[in-house]
Structure formats: C-alpha cells, structure tokens
Amino acid sequence: MADREVVIINGARTAIGKFGGALKNLTVIDIGVAAVKGALERSGIKPEDIDEVIIGHARQAGTGPNAARIVSVKAGIPDSVPAFGVQQACISGLQAVMLAANSIKSGHAEVVLAGGMEHHSSIPYLSLNTRWGARLGDVVLEDAMFKDGYRCGIEEKLMGELTEGLAQKYGIGREEQDQFALESQQKADAAKKKGFYAKVIVPIEVEQKEGPPLLFQEDEHPRSDTTLERLAKLRPAFVKEGTITAGNSSGITDGACALIVMSKERADELKLKPLAFIRSYATAGVEPKYFGIGPVPATKKALQLAGLTLDDIDLIEINEAFAAQVLAVIKELKLDRSKVNVHGGAIALGHPTGMSGARLALELPYALEEKNGRYGIVTICGNGGHGGAMVLERARY
User: Fold this and answer.
1) Which CATH number fits domain 6-122+251-394: 2.60.40.1120, 3.40.47.10, 3.40.50.720, 3.20.20.70?
2) In sequence order, what are the residues at sequence separation of 6 or more whose Cβ sits closer than 8 angstroms to the Cβ of residue 222?
3) Partner of 194 at 20 to 30 A CA spacing, among 79, 185, 269, 351?
C-alpha cells in the first residue's frame, strides 16, 4: 500500500477577503462550504464519492465542535463520510493534504477532500477567568487572534517580534524586505491581470444591506499601487527600531480552499486527469524563536523522500508570513530567486492561516503548467517552531 500513487485532481478556493472586508459578515463555515462545493464541481466528483474530509483550521475558538464536519455536511457530503479538522498553526491546510495522502497510501480511503479555512474577521475575544465569577477587580478580554495565533505560546512573544530576531541573525535589512514585498505585490497583480487566480477562485455570494448580493470573486488584499517609497514610510510594527512593518508582512485575511486528493487507480477508473502527483511530504521542528526557518529542514526531508535535489525543482512556493522569513529561507537553502513565488504570495494576497498551505498546494500545479515545469515544492513555517513541505509533480502535459 505504501507505494500507491496519490494525485491531486483539482480544487477551488474563495477569493481572499480583507480583515473586516467583504467576507466579514460570513462565518468560517460559510466560506468553507463554498470552497468544498467549488472543489467538487471543478473536479467532476460527486459528494458520495468522497471517503473522508480533512480540513486545516488554525483559529477554532467559537466556530463550533469540529467545524470541518459542519462544513462537510452543509456542503452536501453524505452523513456517513467522516470529517475532522487539523490544527498545526500555519501548516494546518498543508497538513490536511498530507494526511489525505497518508489515508490513501494506507488503503483507508480512495478519495479524500482536503483543504483549509480561516475567518479572522469573526475570531472572538476571550474572557478566560470569569466562568466561576469575578470577585474583585477588572475583567480582562483577550483577543483569541493573539492568544491562539499570533503570539508564540512557548516564547511568549508575537511572531513579528520573533521574526525581527531571524532578520538580525541572517543580516536581512529593511530595504531588502521592502523590495521583496514590492515584488510580491507586483507579481500578484500581474498574475491577476493574466487570469491566473481566476483558474482557482470560486465566486461566493455575499448578502448586502441594500441591493443585490455581491459576487465576491477577486482577492481583496493586494495593493497594486504599492511603491518602495510608500513602504519606506511605514513604521515598524513590532519593535521600535525594527525592520518589520505591515507592508512587508502577510495580511490578516479570510479565505478557504479545498482539493480533491485521490489514488491514481481511482482516478484512472473515473477517467479523471490529475493536476499533480504528490511525490513526498514532510514536517520538521526548529527552535520556536526561529520558527520562520522551519521550511528549511522540512524541504530537505521532503526532497530526500522524493529522491530529488533542489536542482530538480522548477518552482518553489514559500508561504510569505514575513518578507524577512522568506528571505532567510532563500538564503539558507541558496534558492534561485527566479523560481520562488512566481505569482506573488501572502504579503500581497493575505494569509488566512488555516487556508494558506492548501492554497499553495492547489496553485503550484497550475504554475507548473504555465511555466512548463515538472517538479515543484510547497513549503510553509508555523508558530511554535515547525515547517512543512510537499513535493508535487505536474501531471498534465
């Protein structure tokens, strides 16, 4: 069973909404359902063909018990199909695809719907110590976005603060970070204009207070008017004399993505042409304070498992948590910059935490088709000191 080939058939994602933007009045369930329905439709798969549902979801407070199961049922997948969520911080969506491949390789499933979702706009505030009453003093609300996300529970610092340390370690200055951020915006704008993102986005209707529903189908976070001059005027966001700003960091956003992962045998039976073969995948741990370097050991492990080297890789997708973080990975792995994030990344598009790894796994095969490449790798860092990576081989020629 371990030698079974696993393929990605197709998938879909919502357009990514700004924090408090077009998707703010929806829920993570709503956007998850939209992505799942879109993936089923674009793949030509019936809901009853699904054996299992696995969805990455990093900010789960207040979303209901097993939000992945709620999404599965509301998307029309039969009650008999099990579903569960994955929480591995930013790696969650990619880990869902890894677990789908594991399930297929082991023979427990033939067809798995895997993906990721996040709705930062509805993350609640927490009152942690009031269940048993507040006898004296103030009652403090804690933002679950920080409690469950942007603050490292090991280092007790914000991710941006820790990335300042990574930037210092690798000698990455403000100008280099701003230049990378500008390139992310420019590449994302070019990709949008040539229709690249339209290949993967499924429209979602958003009710308005007045008038007809909004058909939301374009990413809302990119800033096509970004310039180096504007980036240079932004103040450091985490450390007074630091280098990391809102402009060279990923955006807080909402979005969902779903993929159909399948055994090659079942794809052949159904006469479906896959997007990509999943050749290998790996996760790795690093020092929590240097969490951003997690993609380095994960990438090395995944390449070794695939029997490949970086010279074999045509395209590389690194999640852009921070420009400094991506630049550190590029330096450590000695990557060819021309192969990295050719359509921009999370600095431009935004980073819906649980979704991002799944988005990269869906978009990389389309990028390989466009660039006539064969192998690509997706890699992503995670809070607490983790990295995840997956090697994909283009299947359509």
Assistant:
1) 3.40.47.10
2) 185, 188, 189, 192, 344, 348, 349
3) 351
